[in-house]
Amino acid sequence: MSVLKQLVAELNSGALKVVDLTQPLGPDTPVIGLPEMFGASPGVTMKVISRFDDKGPAWYWNTISMGEHTGTHFDAPVHWITGKDLPDNACDTIPAKRFVGPACVIDVTADVAKDEDFLLTPARIEAWEKEHGKIPAGAWVLLRTGWNTRTDPAKFLNVGENGPHSPGFHADASRLLANDRNVLGVGVETVGTDAGQAGGFDPPFPNHTIMHGAGKFGLASLRNLDQLPATGAVVIAAPLKLVNGSGSPLRVLALAPA
User: Fold this and answer.
1) Whose CA is closest to 90, among 242, 250, 249?
2) Catalytic residue among 79, 170, 208, 212
3) Contact at 8 Å (CB) between 141 and 106?
4) Sheet containing strand 247-249, strands side by side
5) Closest Cα to residue 225, out of 25, 74, 22?
6) Average pLDDT over residues 183-204
7) Quick check: is 73 catalytic?
8) Are 188 and 166 in contact (CB under 8 A)?
9) pLDDT tens-digit profile of 59-99?
10) CA angle 111, 112, 113 (to 5 degrees)
């Protein structure tokens, strides 16, 4: 109990801050696009049930509709074929303690400014570890790319003639993080946890394939990673407890030194 009291005291004193890593969720939220042969995820729609009117004179509320993987969202292992048969692989069965872990923020903003298709490699991870220490088991590894500054939906999705372009993970980096470092999962500022061109990689969409096959998670469309230190923050990323849910929009919060 003394640890919890200290946490509250540090928050109340301003020694710790709560950083919201979530983008607003609404009808204008960008949604990932897939080739026409595949099913498309819908964007957000909201319809008023009542708003201080005859249908509800003292209350306001809406119905909402969207795909599970919309906006800032969580990817559960069952989201991908490699994770479909794992135990505790869905939003309602994952133990709640696995949604909380230390954050390791790897800043590749300068690299992405030069190359929109930049891929994080094992060598780059190991270079980060030489400066900040080995990534601990049970950590959230967050890739800071500067992509969150792209508030225009077209620039955020960045679709060209040969498909979308955005940074992500080399397959060997995903293997290192999932298998050798035993992380909780990875988080990105882009619309999905794989690079834009990852459909043509070997294997296709390697981060999804490797991470979810290892029972790990993904966080997409994060914001405000520039407000976190490389190490020292704690991330809380709890999806909705959807029965057999493959993922969910969520509010990602970080506790960080002020």
Assistant:
1) 242
2) 79
3) yes
4) 16-20, 253-257, 233-236, 100-107, 140-144, 185-188, 217-220, 73-75, 247-249
5) 22
6) 97
7) no
8) no
9) 999 999 999 999 999 999 999 999 999 999 999 999 999 99
10) 90
Residue 93: DSSP 8-state: T
Place of tokens 């505790």: 88
- For residues 191 and 208, the answer to whether their CB atoms sit within 8 Å is no
Cα distance between residue 108 and residue 177, in whole Å: 17
pLDDT at 1 over 80: no
List, for residues 97-130, the tens digit of each pLDDT value: 999 999 999 999 999 999 999 999 999 999 999 9
Q: How far is CA 176 from the centre of its chain?
A: 18
**What pLDDT band is residue 243 in, cutting at 50, 70 and 90?**
very high
Nearest to 247 by CA among 114, 90, 31, 86: 90
Q: What tokens appear for 106 in the block?
A: 């790897």
